[in-house]
Specification:
The structure is a homodimer of 436-residue chains. By secondary structure, chain A is an alpha+beta fold. Chain A folds into two domains: 315 residues, Bira Bifunctional Protein, Domain 2 (BirA Bifunctional Protein, domain 2, 2-Layer Sandwich), CATH 3.30.930; 92 residues, Anticodon-binding domain (Rossmann fold), CATH 3.40.50.800. The first copy, chain A, contains 16 helices and 17 strands. In chain A, a hairpin with a 4-residue loop joins β16 and β17. In chain A, α1 runs antiparallel to α5, α7 runs antiparallel to α8 and α10 packs antiparallel against α11. Chain A starts with 15 loop residues before the first helix and ends with a helix. Chains A and B meet through α1, β1, β2, α2 and α4 of A and α1, β1, β2, α2 and α4 of B.
């Protein structure tokens, strides 16, 4: 039987080039999160299904989760998202930990999706969460993390934006202004989630199925026109929104923050029927070829209650590696990483040089250098071509003369300079190679 | 309903302290592998079960694998080991890639184990493999990687050793000297695998069940006494081992290598019934409290054949994060990582300072500093205690005077020095903080 060489459907093989690219993204995530003093964490790849049933959306549980029964009859799932795990872990330490708790992780997640651009069955997701922060400031910090990350890749406000809404506002408008019950409100949320993907006619058709009165339909459409902080603030003031001063304080603090230039108010962002209870947002790519959200998140007040713990408000976001990479490629922000970057290709031209080469390699590695040893006697005429083909800038060689004199010859192929060193003089050899 | 806060059985939650420890191990693995010019790779968390059936041991498949059928009726498994994935990926590029191919990865793996010291259901494993290397030199390089990694943590030859054998030798002794057929040989391999865990009486009992002739039993025990390179070499010479010159060349090259001081010959290492075909080895802890192998590996000649590709010999090893950490703790080599290391705790003592603090935080982060902003107005009398509790060395504060004068006061709590800077002078503030 011949086995397939392909990876499982919707999953990726990361060959060294792809892995360097992935590491480049992850390093930026790590550096950005830690620049805000977020601490790393991780949980298991598998959790009991109950955890997801308690908090994840229905579509995810019914259609997308990888679930199975283990050999001990436990009903488990491969993690499809990280937030339930974060909540479970925070619940363990919520009482004694000093607040706010700032955490990040970059887990791999699996969802049973139909593979397509931007969607795969396995992806990695940068998760950033803050728990127990004062209202508004936690939201703003998390928005600052996501914008700083994209800026660190060289992205500008011409390339991406952050669309933001507040579910407390949406709930007030639905419940008090349009005056519908919670079931209708639920259905209006669903319409909003779809509203960007459909034309006006389809929107009106969906709306008329949920709202029969013309006045309520008009109120709903009026809401969908509130596409700036100024418009929504004026509207809320005109409709006696009781939390208007908190919202104005948020907008004012946001305008002082580093995220300010990227954020706009968008009534069509509600983030489905997830666990969000306050601010919700999506980071979007302004490039016409790459229309998916790059990241999404929001505030959730009640995640710890399923563990019988007192409420501890949290705000977080998730950013997928696939959508991020698509974004960076669209805007030509992804560096070329075809070759590894090593310091020296170390070779010997005679069998007598082998022991010397091994000893030299160890000493250079201890100095922090990346040393590729050619295994076996190297033919001189192939040396430079081989080294160049592998992306080396320096070649070190131990030939007959070098063995006799206990020396080593080092050549920088880029600057075309060459020097022979005493083999004991590791310091000078290291300096020569580091300059290269 | 109240959900459990505990992780799934046999899996770990990595809180920030544990995650810093994990990252410390992974950074050392990455640095060591790259110092030998090994390149990173990764594959999917899930593979089709057929891949493991073709190559993994029976026990793993029948008792330990996490397998299930996906929604599209594919029979899949969470990866229990990385070697089949490496082989699958190398098979894709074997023809065109320049040799040797040097790869490493640090995947999480799952096995359905009974959790106990050193064994968990989910663990991470450092995998290092070289394909297409000249015989002996590939083996020696891989042994050098594993010994250099442990040395990089401060481990010495008093703390660990590498027990090595060669299955070609074992096969020769079984087939030609003891002269048994392949079924008996298979059963002797199983006895050897257990021989270190049982006493002499139990060993003789197991052996007598497999070998009925006294002379064959004695030959088997004689083999088990060959506990040095010198003894096994002399024995093989006396028994006309046809590959004796290759073996002597290997021992000689090994003695020149950086791994030399750690490696000993051990007839009781055969690495079960895995895919190994040549040299096999285990890294063992010399501390009496920690008896499990830290790492194991060997040479395998035929892994690509299941993909209908020409043979490409490989040598590799795997090292688990659990056993490595146990080793480092046993020898007091694990540094304390209770706190994150941040550069500054940035605070404002009046609401007017908030916008200034946000702007300052952004600028310092852009300079590469790790800045924890206190969210909300800080009470001066709590400032230093809070900062110390979080492990900060520097505090920056913006009080009334600082707002008025557009300055910021920075205090290094360790060296007890304090300075007030112009808020525009990011360069000087950065220098002050980096010195601290």
């Amino acid at each position: 039987m011949t086995l397939s060489k392909k990876p499982y459907k919707g999953c990726r093989d990361f060959f060294p080039k792809e892995m360097r690219e992935r590491n480049y993204l992850f390093e930026a995530m790590k550096t950005t999160a830690e620049s805000f003093a977020y601490e790393p964490f991780d949980g298991p790849m598998v959790e009991e299904v109950e955890l997801y049933k308690a908090k994840s959306g229905e579509e995810l549980i019914n259609e997308q989760i990888y679930e199975f029964t283990d050999r001990g009859n436990r009903h488990v799932a491969i993690r499809p998202e990280m937030t339930p795990t974060v909540a479970r872990m925070v619940a363990q330490i919520a009482k004694q930990a000093s607040k706010p708790i700032r955490w990040y992780s970059i887990p791999n997640l699996m969802r049973y999706e139909k593979p397509q651009r931007g969607r795969l069955r396995e992806h990695w997701q940068f998760n950033v969460d803050i728990f127990g922060a004062p209202e508004n400031l936690g939201e703003i910090e998390v928005l600052s993390v996501v914008s700083q990350l994209l800026e660190s890749f060289g992205a500008t406000k011409e390339m991406f934006g952050i669309q933001l809404n507040d579910r407390k506002i949406v709930d007030y408008i639905f419940n008090e202004i349009i005056a519908v019950d919670s079931e209708i409100s639920y259905r209006l949320y669903k319409i909003i989630d779809k509203s960007k993907k459909v034309d006006r006619q389809a929107l009106e058709k969906m709306t008329s199925e949920v709202l029969t009165e013309k006045s309520k339909q008009d109120a709903f459409y009026e809401y969908l026109e509130l596409d700036s902080f100024e418009k929504v603030t004026n509207y809320l003031k005109g409709h006696n929104y009781p939390r208007i001063s908190e919202f104005e304080a948020f907008v004012s603090k946001l305008s002082n923050s580093q995220a300010s230039e990227f954020v706009e108010y968008d009534p069509a962002i509600v983030r489905g029927l997830d666990y969000y209870t306050g601010v919700v947002f999506e980071v979007f790519d302004k490039h016409p070829d790459n229309k998916r959200a790059i990241a999404g998140g929001g505030a959730y007040a009640n995640l710890l209650q399923i563990f019988n713990e007192p409420a501890l408000p949290g705000i977080g976001f998730g950013m997928g590696d696939v959508t991020l990479k698509d974004f960076l490629i669209s805007h030509d922000l992804m560096p070329k990483m075809d070759h590894a970057i090593n310091d020296v290709f170390l070779t010997y031209l005679t069998g007598d040089g082998e022991a010397m080469a091994m000893s030299m390699a160890k000493q250079l590695r201890m100095k922090g250098l990346k040393v590729e040893t050619h295994l076996g006697v190297m033919k001189f005429k192939k040396l430079f071509k081989t080294a160049e083909g592998k992306g080396h800038r320096n070649v070190a060689l131990i030939g007959e003369d070098e063995v006799k004199n206990n020396t080593i010859t080092v050549k920088n192929m880029v600057e075309r300079k060459q020097e022979t060193f005493d083999a004991q003089d590791i310091e000078s050899i290291t300096n020569f190679l580091k300059q290269g």
